[in-house]
Specification:
single chain, mainly alpha, Growth Hormone, Chain: A, 15 helices, 2 domains, 394 residues
Length: 394
């Protein structure tokens, strides 16, 4: 039986840009937790650490789509290196300000340019789309990238925390800046697989987010991200309540494992179901699996529920990206994909914030209600969007 993932990497240059892209993607999940660890270790100021990390996250949400829009208009080779340089300078200044105990306002100022970090997940997906547009292999490629996303968000935070706690507080950010520099340089020099820029539309003033269908997809993944952020919070709270705080890591790993395995399996399938219907099924599964969170009674049960919830997440993300590839013009593809990934990050941040308040007020089950509501909202948007997405998907 042919291996679709082996066939995927038969294209010249695919292994090289996938490897460089993986290296360049690890710094993003390293940075937020790296900022928190760096500032909380010597100062013990968790509020300050969280606020600076929030500014960085907000900056990536605002600057990321704009960097990707420039990439669509000017090309990856011309934009990625300068954007990464701005981010690296911001990270460098941030860790220097922290190390030399500069005024607190300087930390916030430096966190803003650090958010110019290019969204490398979208850059890699754009190259796969250029290689396999119109081919069943694109489905496999997008599935593989969803699994890589999970892997980077497992490796990145763990690496950052280990470096900042075991070496010195600024080590996590320092290594993140180094990986970003090396990864982007290795990625950018690979011109053979770079998506070409169409000169007829390169100077277009339009943005992918102006398409109502893209807005709906971003809102759907925003709701999905809120579930992920909520799961993060209630896993920690529930494990602590049960007297096994270390078990929270195992619970969160179960979510990542469930999502990664499902993503690999989904990528190997040759489904004939229309993408909008697959989207509704995926969001329905994601929403349904939030309900058992209301009734778990121990950490093992929580891990099982979270594992099942993860099974629906990666396939849903894959379908969303496939729809973006169908809806958005080629000249705006990188920006369109970046908006979806930004929606996911914003949803995680929103879910974490709201669930934290709910857990403080009503305990872990209060946080579970936030996940249920987010799932219901995502499902409603998916159902309302089915007709317009069906016309776009053809």
């Amino acid at each position: 039986m042919p291996n679709p993932y082996r066939e995927l990497f038969s294209a010249p240059g695919s292994r090289a840009f996938a490897a460089a892209g993986f290296l360049a993607r690890i710094p993003l999940p390293m940075t937020g937790i790296g900022v928190i660890t760096m500032l909380s270790q010597p100062r013990g100021e968790y509020a300050l650490a969280g606020a600076v990390a929030a500014v960085f996250t907000l900056s990536t949400a605002l600057l990321g789509p704009r960097v990707s829009r420039l990439v669509d208009r000017r090309g990856q080779g011309r934009v990625l290196v300068p954007a990464a340089a701005v981010s690296v300078v911001g990270l460098g200044l941030l860790l220097l300000c922290a190390h030399f105990d500069a005024p607190k306002w300087t930390l916030f100022v430096c966190a803003v340019p650090a958010g110019a970090m290019p969204n490398m997940a979208a850059m890699v997906r754009a190259r796969w789309s250029e290689l396999y547009r119109g081919s069943p292999r694109l489905h496999t490629a997008l599935s593989f990238e969803s699994v890589v996303d999970e892997l980077t968000f497992v490796i990145g935070p763990a690496l950052s925390v280990a470096l900042s706690t075991m070496v010195f507080p600024e080590a996590g950010l320092l290594v993140a800046a180094g990986l970003l520099t090396a990864g982007v340089l290795l990625f950018a020099v690979q011109r053979g697989t770079e998506p070409p820029v169409d000169p007829r539309v390169a100077d277009s003033g339009s943005s992918a987010i102006r398409d109502p269908r893209v807005v709906r997809l971003v809102l759907i993944i925003l709701a999905g991200g809120a579930i992920v952020g909520t799961v993060d919070v209630i896993s920690v709270a529930f494990a602590d309540q049960q007297g096994h705080p270390a078990a929270a890591g195992a619970v969160l790993s179960a979510y990542a494992v469930g999502s990664a395995v499902a993503g690999l399996a989904f990528g190997a399938l040759n489904l004939r179901i229309p993408l909008p219907r697959l989207l509704v099924l995926g969001v329905l599964g994601t929403a349904t699996t939030t309900l058992p969170l209301l009734f778990v009674s121990d950490v093992v049960g929580l891990a099982v529920v979270v594992l099942l919830a993860g099974v629906f997440f990666a396939p849903t993300m894959i379908v969303l990206m496939s729809l973006v590839e169908r809806i958005v013009p080629v000249a705006q593809l990188t920006e369109g994909m970046t908006w979806v990934i930004t929606g996911l990050s914003a949803g995680v941040a929103l879910g974490s914030a709201v669930a934290g308040q709910a857990v403080d007020a009503w305990g872990p089950r209060g946080g579970a209600v936030v996940a249920v509501v987010a799932g219901a909202v995502g499902l409603l948007i998916a159902l309302v969007s089915t007709r317009s997405l069906a016309r776009a998907a053809g």
